[in-house]
Every structure is written in C-alpha cells, then in structure tokens.
Amino acid sequence: MANGRRTHQAKALPYGGYHQTWVGQNDAELTRVGPGTLCGEVLRRYWQPVAMSQELGDLPRLLRILGEDLVVFRDKGGRLGLVHRRCPHRRASLEYGVCEDRGIRCCYHGWRFDVDGRLLEVPGQPAGVEARMKETVALGAYPTLEVKGLIFAYLGPPEEKPAFPIYDTMEIPDQVMTPYKAPFACNWLQVLDAIVDPIHTSFLHARISRQQFSEGFGALGEIKFYERPSGYLGTFTRRVGDHVWVRTNELVLPNFTQAGAAFAADGTRARYFGRTAFSRWVVPVDDESTVCYAWANFGERGDPPEWNTWEGPQLIEQGELFERPYEERQRFPADLEATEGMGRISEHEKENLVPSDKGIVLYRKRLRELCRATEKGKRPAQPTDHWPGPVPTYGGDTVLRLPPNGSDDAAYLQRIGQAVMEAQFEAEGLTGAARDEAVIVRLKRIEAEGIGE
To answer: Which of 87, 148, 184, 310 would give a disulfide with 106, using CB separation of 3.0 to 4.6 Å?
Structure first.
C-alpha cells in the first residue's frame, strides 16, 4: 500500500483479489465524445446516422447523439430538420414544437425557424424587433440526408462538410436493405471493438452460448489483419470439412462496419464473394450509451430473404433478441451482454491484450492519430477521398472446396486466406458487376488449382 492506495501487482497471484481492486482508467482520448472532445471532433466530421425514417411522423422527435440533445423533424413541406433542442429565445424545448409548412414553431412564444436554423418569424413584437432578431439570432442546425430509410446528419464545421460516401454494398442489384437500430448501454468503443475481433465469433456465438448462427462459426482458424486506405479488415479463415471459409470483418474509419452473412454461409457449401449481412454505423449517444444504425441486407449476395422479419435484424446483429429475461441472457449471452458487461465505460487500463487482439490495437492507434491530427487542424480523410465512385468494400464470405493439402493445414489456410483477399484487392478499381465477375473468376481459379507453397 502506498499513500493509502493499493498498488497494482504485475505478477499473477492466487486469491489476489485485494490487489486488483484498484480502479483502472478508461482511454478517455477515444471514449469521450461530447462537444470539444478529441474523438467527438473526429466523429463530427463524418456523416452519421441519427434516426430511422419510420420513427418520424408529424411530431418532432427528441434524440441524443454525440452528447448533444437534438430534435429531428419533418416539416409539412417534406423537408428534414435537425436542430438544437432548446429555442434560443427562452430555452423551451422544441420537442414540443409544431411542424409547419416551412420549418418548426416553438410552443412557448411562437418563434418559427427554418430547417437550416434561420429565424423566420418573431410574432407579437414591436415593429423592427423581428428584423433585428433575424440578423442576430439563429437556432443551431445541422445538414441532413435521407438514404434508404436512414436519416444522416453532419455535425461538424459546415465549411468542411464532406460528400456522403456511397458504398458498393448500397448498389447491389435486387438487394433489399432493411433499416434497423440496436441500442447498447455502454461506451461506443467497446461495441465497435468487436468488429476487429474475429475470434470472438467462435466463442461468444458458438462455443460458449448456444449455436447462434451455424456450427461452422465454432471452428477456430487463422486470423489476419489488413490495412486499407479507408480502414481495416480482419479475416478469419476456418476449415469446415473439405471446405475453407474465409470470413471478412470490415471497419471503415471512423465507425462504419460490415461483416459476413449471419445465415447465408455456414462453411459447408461453396460461396463466391458473398457480401455483408449488415452495413452498420456504431454511433455514440454519449459517453455511456451507444446506438447502432444499420441496414440488414437480404438477397442472393446477403442473407436469405426469409430472415427479413421483425426479429431478423436483431438476430443478424448479435445472434439473439435484445429484450430477453435476465436468466436467458446469462445462459445464452451475445454481444449485448459481452459489451455491456464491461461496464458503462470499460477500464482499458486493466486489459491484457494478446495477438488475436491485433486488430483492436491497430484500430485504436489509427483513431488516436485521427484525433490528434484533427486537434491540430488537419482535415480527416474521408472514404470519398480515395474512390471517385462507389467505395469498394470487403465485408463478406468466401467458401471454397479445398481439402487439406499436406500436414500443415494451418499454413495452407493462411495462404488461401491471403489469396482470397488479393483477388478482391486486385479488382477494387472496378465497380459493380465488373468487379464481382473479376473476383469470382479468380476465386473459382483458386478453388480449381489450389494454392501451392
């Protein structure tokens, strides 16, 4: 004990609980997201989903994003507005406002504001007051976009507003994209970390809990991480009988994620360049709560259409429903239980990272670099900086029939995983059907010819 505080013991001790009661610090540089925080400033410089279209009727809707209390509404002209909650007159909440033909009117004194925050009307005042107020008063507002049932906003400096990124998975023919949201009562970083942690699927979703997706998820394999211009990929190459399953999780900085299918692939049948089950943003509500806004993707390249139900997106998101009895959650934990169980903000100082956590280490390092560069006034790179057309993405599954080849199957799996990803990298300059065809032709050649030493 030093100065009345218990000291952290570096050596593992039996019955050493007394020495582990010290409070570990969280990584405040990355976990704090409110206005003026390092990471909050980074996240504000990217388009973020803030609501689903179906949540918005004829009344304003209160929401909280990045530690800010906001109101989203659709005026009677059909235009979207995202504004600060408090009216700049006497601070009444605009969640009780009235949506008008143009803009929103405060319930308290009838001040009316346009969707861009401009003051339109100051009723009941002497001549000249309205004109003067229009020159000096505005309601805080943010630009919005509505895309396939999700409402996006840009909360950063207006002069730095980037182009909205169109990802190639948003343009797959005959694909149905169903918007959904998933709330987590914990910090955003511990929710997002799972996407660059491929090995957790074998344990949390198969070996520890009940079989939440398919038996093949329980197979262990070879992990490899790749850095791309826009983010990171983590591949998990498993053997399932005579097939090799290369599953790719993807993170586009700072918080867009994709992964393989939840129910379309189990490692037992060939699948060539299958695409993602979800296209998902992990969005901080504040420092201690998170909401994932996403599309669940159904069709030949995504998950089977029969999973496009009320329960389907929840099962795709984490393998279980979110609202369950506590005992069931204990017996069959999923991502919600794993991440919320870390506490509202995890004690990162107490983590003991291992080689399979390399993706987490790489991502946090890159995010930290973004934070510090933004603090110095440097504009963070956008996905659209690297790609003039649809942004090529990689989250998905490839399953090839490749029986064991020699005694060192682990090394063989590593070579197959590498070859599968190289097939995608070499075609990333193509778009649409041309890219799909180039990748699939290469994958079928790998399956036919195998991978040598």
So the answer is: 87
Instruction: Supply the DSSP string of 389-434, one letter for each residue.
Output: SSBP---EEEEEE----SS-HHHHHHHHHHHHHHHHHHTTTS-HHH
Eight-class DSSP state of 167: B
Could you please state the CATH topology (level 3) that the domain comprising 47-160 is classified under: Rieske Iron-sulfur Protein (2.102.10)
- All CATH 2.102.10.10 domain ranges in the chain, comma separated: 47-160
In the structure, how many helices (H) and strands (E) does the chain have?
A: 12, 20
87 to each of 65, 286, 304, how far by Cα in Å? 18, 22, 47
Q: How do residues 298-319 score in pLDDT, each as one tens digit?
A: 999 999 999 999 999 999 888 8
Residue pair 139/365 in contact (Cβ under 8 Å)? The answer is no
Please tell me whether residue 84 adopts helix, strand or coil conformation: strand
State how far the Cα of 49 lies from the Cα of 418, in Å rounded to an integer: 33
Bridge-based pairing of strands 98-99 and 80-84 is unpaired
Specify the 3-state DSSP secondary structure of 326. Answer: helix
Q: Stretch 435-446: mean pLDDT, rounded?
A: 97
Residue in the block written with tokens 């409402």: 151
Q: What is the pLDDT confidence band of residue 1, given thresholds at 50, 70 and 90?
A: very low
pTM over 0.70: yes
Fold of 168-449: Naphthalene 1,2-dioxygenase Alpha Subunit; Chain A, domain 1 (3.90.380)
**Are 398 and 301 within 8 A, CB to CB?**
no
Instruction: Output the six-digit token pair for 126.
Output: 């002497």
How many residues in the chain? 453
